[in-house]
Amino acid sequence: MKALRVPFLLLLIFNVIAALFVALNLLGRRMPWDEPGESARLGRQLAPEQIRLVTTPAVPASSPRAAASAPVAGLLCSIVSGLTQDEAQQLEGQAQEYAQRLEMSISARVSGISAPSYWVHIPPSGGKEGATRRAEILTRAGLTDLIIIRDPGPNQFAISLGLFRSEEAARRLFDQLRKRNVINVRLTVRDNTGNNARVELKGPDQILDAMVSDFISTHSHARRSDSCHAA
Hints:
Protein name: SPOR domain-containing protein
Oligomer: single chain
Structural class: alpha+beta
CATH architecture of the domain at 73-113 and 194-230: 2-Layer Sandwich
Keywords: Membrane, Transmembrane, Transmembrane helix
Organism: Candidatus Dactylopiibacterium carminicum
Number of strands: 8
CATH class of the domain at 73-113 and 194-230: Alpha Beta
GO molecular function: peptidoglycan binding
Pfam family, one: SPOR
Radius of gyration: 51 Å
Distance between the termini: 112 Å
Strand content: 15-25%
Largest sheet: 4 strands, antiparallel
């Protein structure tokens, strides 16, 4: 009987241990020889020492997104008036030069320029007596359509023979007089604009303001007005 008791006790102990392991497994407890769980595998995969921070590269200033967020330069609209035709064209050319050199948009529009006239005349010489004497000679030669200029100024006592809107008509009379030996006759283009020309300018505020201020400083008779100033 003693010989059977020892194997029986061993078998009983083995069954108890086996039942204990089965119970623990049913309760979700991990055995020492089981594979590690999901959390352990994730822990090995993360490898904290290999983690690197990735930063978003800066957006270049020339990209559309940067251009959209960049501040817009102010816009200045300025009118410079009281100019002669030559001065207006000078300011217009200066604006075009600035636009090309700085690669920016600057518009310039000239207005108030009148069409020139063409004056056929004999310049003053010898004062009033000289003008009267020449007028008598021309009248005897059949040139009766003439006027002695009596208004004070550089052309006082000149003899006007015709004022034309067309250069062609003025040139025709001039050639006829030269053929009739009126050798001191002159053909002059007259600027009828006076100081009535003006230039309307539009462009970046700081650049345009500096350009107009510089022009005004050398043309004291010119007048400036800023018609709009939008941000």
